[in-house]
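Progress note, project year one: complex with 2-OXO-4-methylpentanoic acid.
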Amino acid sequence: MSLEFAFTPNPAPRPQDEVEQVLADPGFGAHFTDHMAVATWTRADGWHDAAIKPYGPFQMDPAGAVLHYAQEVFEGMKAYRHADDSIHLFRPEANARRMQTSAARMVLPELDVEDFLAAVNGLVRADARWVPGSAGERSLYLRPFMFADEVFLGVRAAERVTFCVIASPAGPYFSGGVKPVDIWVSSTYARAGVGGTGAAKCGGNYAASLIAQYEGYEHGCSQVLFIEAAGKDRLEELGGMNLFLVTADGRLVTPALTGTILEGVTRSSILTIAPELGLTPQEHRITPEWFFDGLASGEITEAFSCGTAAVVTPIGGFKSDAGEWRLPANGSHKTLALRNAILDIQYGRVPDAHGWVTRVV
Ligand code: COI
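Model obtained:
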């Protein structure tokens, strides 16, 4: 059954001059548009009550299940304004499918790809004036999410669930923009374990990463790199982004998907376009020994993090309890070429050879 998202316009939308002020310097995740998409699922009736309606708080019972047992999943995607003012999404079906996979892991209901897309497209159309121009790498960040909304304290899958999409004009995720960031390699904390929820985009993974991120802040780092929990024998991912390494002989290496890391849409796009930039993509186990030796010997020449929010952000160096490794300053040539290649597709500055871009407005 496909959902109809009935539209109720916001009776008090933000004045245009205020919207323009926000779009001129949106930051990340701090401002929200006039509308949101919502739908409700109950075990008895399935998905229903779909709407695009004025943005506003949920009324939540203190016994709402998500507040206690964190049964929740989310997505991150962006709408891009092209030079001709049309607005486009980047691989939105990939986000829709990943939300299904995440939801299945968290015993949340499946939302059809077409319903997910109807919610996202409807919200982007309703709030099109909130999509910034491409200057300063700006876009409208979209946050679809789904949570257990049943008033019940027993530990079982909720029988009432809310799906929602909110939108937030965004600039670069890191306040320094495309400046290289330093990464803390945590030897104390793990993010996920085999058989756990590491491959699902659920809030708990991000909550679990926070303590290590603060450990990183204490060492002047912006993000944390996690090593596999049990054997400590492979690199995994950053708190909210995937990791790539470039080697002197032209390989582009990223940790293989082992069930403990997130399958990033940007990650998979980078693996696809790497050969176009003369790089050989490789997904495999990256041992800490090879990694630290490669940093020390110069075999690893570049490193970057990637994700919808971060796009492609160069890494300047890594720090851990055992020491510090710097990557060559001003050496992020392949990283920046990959970053520009992805952004050029997203902003429609080059032909969309992979069929990744979908026009919404
Ligand atoms: C995204 O890249 O969209 C994410 O969900 C990660 C988060 C750090 C913002």
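Residues 203-218 form the longest helix (16 residues).
The two ends are 25 Å apart (CA to CA).
No further modelling is planned for this target in the current period.
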